[in-house]
Write a structure and sequence with these properties.
ATP binding; single chain; alpha+beta; 250 residues; binds biotin; 5-stranded antiparallel sheet; ATP-binding; BirA Bifunctional Protein, domain 2; nucleotide-binding; ligase
Length: 250
């Protein structure tokens, strides 16, 4: 389904925004994909910028609609991260996952994911999952990014064709999404944990900057909850489920 409706744009503001607008106008099939050679206004979590040079990295968004309550949409970020992680490992790149939306290699970010709801009701939810995967970014350009970053080129030592990478990532994503549809989130969560770089490690979870009631919490990352929540075990052994925030690994 994900390979049936792919639209490539030379340049857009943000593939997430373009696809969400198309969905709101109507007539977009479930599983449609918008990809772009360049995003002039690429967005990350917490309204951060997602910057890439033209034609170097992969930036795309997938439209997903489910007949499930909106709360059950959240784990698509983790399902997508697992799919990208599996794809990279299949190419010999030692990808690790960081909650909730990062794919890292040796602590350097290679991929970020931004899932945004477009429409929802009591028993349905639709949204776009945006994936930014660093494919052919050179080491000198990765060094200009304000946080540690890497790319497939840097890790594998060779260039990759963007269209091929897109097709292969979408195939893996489709397989993980249908696995979740058939078998639920639990088996995905166990695979995600196995690929996670902070399972059983002390972490600080900084509350969502947009949520004034959230706090910064310390503890050990104990795994994922049934809805993809971060389970944090504190020094008294109590486990708290955290819905959103940023993880710092110690
Ligand atoms: C993050 O790490 O904060 C998430 C980054 C998500 C970037 C992708 S690139 C394709 C899609 N379009 C956007 O504007 N953002 C996502």
């Amino acid at each position: 389904m994900l390979l049936d409706n792919i639209t490539w744009f030379e340049e857009v503001g943000s593939t997430n925004s373009v696809l969400a607008d198309m969905v709101r106008r109507g007539g977009v099939a479930n599983g449609s994909v918008v990809a772009a050679g360049y995003q002039s206004g690429g967005r990350g979590r917490h309204s951060r910028q997602w910057l890439t040079q033209p034609g170097v990295n992969l930036t795309f968004s997938v439209y997903l609609r489910y007949d499930i309550p909106p709360a059950e949409f959240a784990p698509v970020t983790l399902v997508s991260a697992l799919a990208v992680g599996r794809y990279l490992r299949g190419r010999g790149i030692d990808a690790r996952l960081k909650w909730p939306n990062d794919v890292l290699v040796s602590g350097r970010k290679i991929c970020g994911i931004l899932a945004e709801t477009v429409d929802s009701g009591a028993d349905f939810c639709s949204g776009v999952v945006g994936i930014g995967l660093n494919v052919n970014m050179a080491a000198a350009d990765a060094a200009k990014i304000d946080k540690p970053a890497t790319s497939m080129l840097i890790e594998a030592g060779s260039q990759f064709a963007l269209h091929t990478v897109l097709t292969e990532v979408l195939e893996e994503l489709e397989s993980q999404l249908s696995r979740r549809q058939c078998g639920g989130f639990a088996p995905i969560a166990r695979d995600w944990e196995a690929m996670c770089c902070h399972l059983g490690r002390p972490v600080t979870v900084a509350g969502d900057a947009d949520d004034k009631t959230s706090k910064t919490l310390e503890g050990v990352f104990a795994g994922l909850g049934d809805g993809g929540e971060l389970l944090l075990r504190d020094s008294r052994g109590e486990v708290r489920a955290i819905m959103s925030g940023d993880v710092v690994i110690h």
